[in-house]
Amino acid sequence: MVNKMSEILLTGHSGCKIYLVTKENGDKYIKKISSNINYNKRLFHQCEKQINFQSDTIKTPKVFSYDINEDGLFQFHMEYINGITLAEYMNNISVNRIKDIVKLIIGNYENENIGQITESQIKEKFLHKLNSLANSIDLTDKIIKESFEVLKKYNYKNFILSNCHGDLTLENIIISNNNIYYIDFLDSFHDSWLIDIGKLLQDIQIFWSYRNKENLNENLLIRLMIFRDILIQELVDKNPKYFIDVYIALLINLLRIVPYTRDVNTANFIHNKIELVLKIVEGALKSENLNYTMHG
């Protein structure tokens, strides 16, 4: 007797297809399939990241198996987590719970350093990414040009090699039975936890995941600002230098979105946010106790 299964197509990222599969006995799992053969290698690396992820504070869905399907596309099967995204959870979350979640996220990166890499090698990786990005973006724009000038002078010495989700948005954090799960890992040009925190700021400071909502609920806005303030305070308590680092990471993240904007509203939204973050970065760089973050 053939075991019957049903599949429901969920929202996918990078063109990948994600299915919720339900077996005849009611058990569920997630199947993620590469968008095309050229994307196979990237999805394999993302699968590897998920398999190799280790943390005392954060969980991730277990990967059961992976293979190449009949269409030549890489796919993997993983545990289904019944929960809600942190983006949804923010609507009703308490301040104390925000503090707990921030501590768990930051605690995940305690004493992170998974490889030997020199400061000059880190800087070289960032410059390579910036130079590549510069080929697909309008450098005649004053704000964009200033952003690149600041980023190319920055030293990046704190961006040590570490575990890195690669796309740590509120949509990619699941709350289930008081546990936190990371989903939808993404390969990154450089693996550093500071890049993850910068990506998180993209939601809690820039409101990227909420950009298509006409009006943000005032209570949600307050919760997001509280989240941001607690997160920044935790970072500064660890090391004051991290303040500028995460906003540098955020600035890079926003610039990376620019080539993919297809409508005027999104383009204006991103441009305004780049200007906002650039002012925060430049203000911090002018501060007496943060001048050490720049080198000529």
- Tell me the total number of β-strands: 8
Overall average residue pLDDT: 90
- Broad shape: globular
As a whole number of angstroms, the C-alpha radius of gyration is 20 Å
Structural class: alpha+beta
Oligomer: single chain
Major sheet characteristics: 5 strands, antiparallel
Residue share in β-strands:
5-15%
Low-pLDDT segments: 289-296
Question: What level of helicity do the residues show?
Answer: 40-55%
Helix-strand topology string: EEEHEEEHHHHEEHHHH
- Cα distance spanning the termini: 71 Å
The total of helices stands at: 9
Strand order of the largest sheet: 1-2-3-5-4
Record the SSE blueprint:
Elements: E1 5-10, E2 17-23, E3 28-33, H1 40-52, E4 63-68, E5 74-79, E6 84-85, H2 86-89, H3 95-107, H4 119-134, H5 142-153, E7 173-176, E8 179-182, H6 193-204, H7 218-238, H8 242-257, H9 264-286
What features would you describe in this structure?
The chain has helices at 40-52, 86-89, 95-107, 119-134, 142-153, 193-204, 218-238, 242-257, 264-286; strands spanning 5-10, 17-23, 28-33, 63-68, 74-79, 84-85, 173-176, 179-182. It has 296 residues and is an alpha+beta fold. The strands form 2 sheets. The protein has a 5-stranded antiparallel β-sheet, covered by helices on one side. Strands 6-7-8 form a 3-stranded antiparallel β-sheet. Helix 5 (142-153) crosses helix 9 (264-286) and helix 8 packs antiparallel against helix 9 (264-286). The model is unreliable at 289-296 (pLDDT under 50).
